[in-house]
Amino acid sequence: MTDAGRLAFLDEFRSGPQTRGLLEELVAGNSVPLKVMEVCGTHTMAISRHGIRQAVPEELTLISGPGCPVCVTANADIDAFIELALLPDVIATTFGDMLRVPGTRMGLAEARGQGARVQVVYSTLDALKIARENPDRSVVFFGVGFETTAPTVAAALLEARQTGVDNFFVQSVHKVVPPALEALSSAPELAVDAYLCPGHVTAIIGPEAYAPVASRYGIPCVVTGFEPADILQGLIMLSRQKAEGRSQVEVQYTRGVRAGGNPAALALMEHVFEPCDAAWRGLGTIPGSGLAISEEFAAHDALRRFPVDVSYSREPRGCICGAILTGQKTPRDCGLFGGACVPEHPVGPCMVSSEGTCAAYYQYES
Amino acid sequence: MCLAVPARIVEIDKQMATVEIGGSRREASLVLLPDASMGDYVLLHAGFAISRIDEAEALETLRLFRAMLGEGNVAEDD
Ligand code: SF4
């Protein structure tokens, strides 16, 4: 098999005939009303971009969930990072998504205007490199993300400690997905019938992590990939479970997800982080749903090193991101959508992030 | 943020690899995937390989798609 041939097999997950055929299958096999939550922001984007929400049979409702890490980050946490960025001698490092998220007083972009040094990085190892190159500064990385990202932050923290990069700090607001799904499942007003579970989070934690959701709440879960054909097949698997009265964890994304997840990544996370209660925008505080930096790595914990006061924090006025993140509302229910709130002037984080539901709707469905 | 893209490992130097994505090359850490080897397809997230892409499983999924599409000639291998 040639190299080109090897790549082609991945392209096929995107191909038109494949997608059309699966869609026909979905239309033919789906006569029961089904409310499916796509938990992951990358799914939300793919569903919007490929017009899947409109294409599926009308019995199938696709709602977005709390799977955009930037969006679920509470304003108090965003404000704290902005305060850290404004400290003298600090270089604030972050993934690009965070740059234009509005905080209570200002966003990172405005903080830059006030003299803050903010650098966008592609990887935590880039942030570590900046720390090595600037020994007289404190380099703070904003640890936002789910189980896909948290191990990469853990790896950087471990390397910082092993190689004595004492000026590297992390503000960890990492969150884990299963407790959030349990919180959503136990809220009767949401009445979600099925979950399209995130493929890349599950590559780390393993599909077993959703077993309590499936068994305790009777909600089918299918771990799904991100190409159009993957998503359609995931939906077919969910509607079959529903039709057959099953509620199990199944994996559509078998090419990327193994039983037990990624043991090396899980071990590293366990070493560097410890579970904590975490505040989610829209869901409130969920016990055990966050990852705090463990005692062993306390010297690299940004907020222990530089305590900041964010008692002024509040959520943006008029923004209903919270209700959107729990699937109760859609962006069209927001009075600011497309008017006062657009990607160029976002009011809430869901309009900024590349995985935000409002951004997805604005870009592809409005 | 949980976006990960398929990349192929073309070089390994201890815990760092050079990977190919489309036509371009970049560095990737193998800390989270220590048993990755040359030629493997991996999922790359924020500079780290996080999972191996299992080619046999990918082909099996495609075979299932084709079976659903009712194509008589379902290839086991292509
Ligand atoms: S449109 Fe803007 S203000 Fe409205 S919910 Fe979305 S992000 Fe918030």
Question: Your description of this structure?
Answer:
The complex is a heterodimer of chains A (366) and B (78). Chain A is an alpha/beta fold. Helices cover 40% and strands 17% of the residues of chain A. Chain A contains 17 helices and twelve strands. The mean pLDDT of chain A is 93. By secondary structure, chain B is of the alpha+beta class. Chain B is 18% helix and 40% strand. Chain B is built from one helix and five strands. Chain B has one helix at 55-68; strands at residues 5-13, 16-21, 24-29, 41-45, 48-52. A five-stranded antiparallel beta sheet of chain B has the order 3-2-1-4-5, with no helix packed on it. In chain B, a hairpin with a 2-residue loop joins strand 1 (5-13) and strand 2. Mean pLDDT of chain B is 85; it is low at 72-78. The chains are: A alpha/beta (366), B alpha+beta (78). The interface between A and B is large, with 54 and 34 residues. Iron/sulfur cluster binds next to helix 16 of chain A.
Biggest sheet character of chain A: 5 strands, parallel
Name the ligand types: iron/sulfur cluster
Estimate the strand proportion of chain A. Answer: 15-25%
% residues in beta strands of chain B: 35-45%
Helix share, percent of chain A: 40-55%
Domains of chain B (count): 1
Order of helices and strands of chain B: EEEEEH
- The tally of strands of chain B reads 5
Largest sheet of chain A, order of strands side by side?
2-1-8-9-10
Class from helix and strand fractions of chain A: alpha/beta
Low-confidence stretches of chain A: none
Question: How many E-type strands of chain A?
Answer: 12
Measured between the Cα atoms of the first and last residue of chain A, the distance is 44 Å
Summarize model confidence as the mean pLDDT of chain A. 93
Q: Low-confidence spans of chain B: pLDDT under 50, at least 5 residues? A: 72-78
Which sheet architecture does the biggest sheet of chain B show? 5 strands, antiparallel
Order of helices and strands of chain A: HHEHHEHHEHEHEHEEHEHHEHEHEEHHH
Overall body shape of chain A: globular
CATH class of chain B: Mainly Beta
Number of helices of chain B: 1
